[in-house]
Structures are given as structure tokens and as C-alpha cells.
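Below is how a single chain appears once it has passed through the pipeline. First comes the sequence as given, then the structure the pipeline wrote out for it. We keep one example in the README because the format questions we get most often are answered faster by looking than by reading.
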Amino acid sequence: MISFIYLVGLLQGTSLSKPFPTTGFYPLVYGGNAGAPNVSVNNAALCHLGVLDPKKVKGKIVVCLRGESPRLEKGVEALCAGASTSIGAPPQSSLLS
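Resulting structure:
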């Protein structure tokens, strides 16, 4: 099922995760700020397998930087850590500044 995501004034896209309700809001967290203990900010930002802290991502949308590993792997990491879904952003994304 494809869900549509709108970040008002920033971007819009689609999600291949479970369908989102048509109402409500989900907190957004940058992967680099959601790493498990002893994980570098760079590895957490790239959402490599085993790097996200479930306590920091549970129920949230995780923004993962694209690059180094397949997008599907990043989405699997986010979902396994308990995130609602993930968004792939280019490394130079203005969303992160």
C-alpha cells in the first residue's frame, strides 16, 4: 500500500510502508540524532543496519540520508527499530540545516 506524505512547505512524497491514517501527525526525527549508544552520527544518519536507537525512533518518521547502502535497507532498519516509516533525503538536503 502506498501512503502519501506531505511536509507542509518542504516536500511531498510517497511511503511504501503500512498505510497512514488520513488524519493525525507523526513526529519527525533525523537519523543522525537517533543513533544507538556508541554509533557515529554519520552511520546513524545513513540508517545502516543496527544503528538506530528504538527509544528515539519509536512511532516517528525517520529521515535517513541516501548513499552507501540500499534504500530498502535503510527502510528496514527504521521499521525494525520501531519507526512509523522513513524518508530518504539527499546528503546535501536543506531539510537538515
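The two ends are 31 Å apart (CA to CA).

See the next section for the split statistics.
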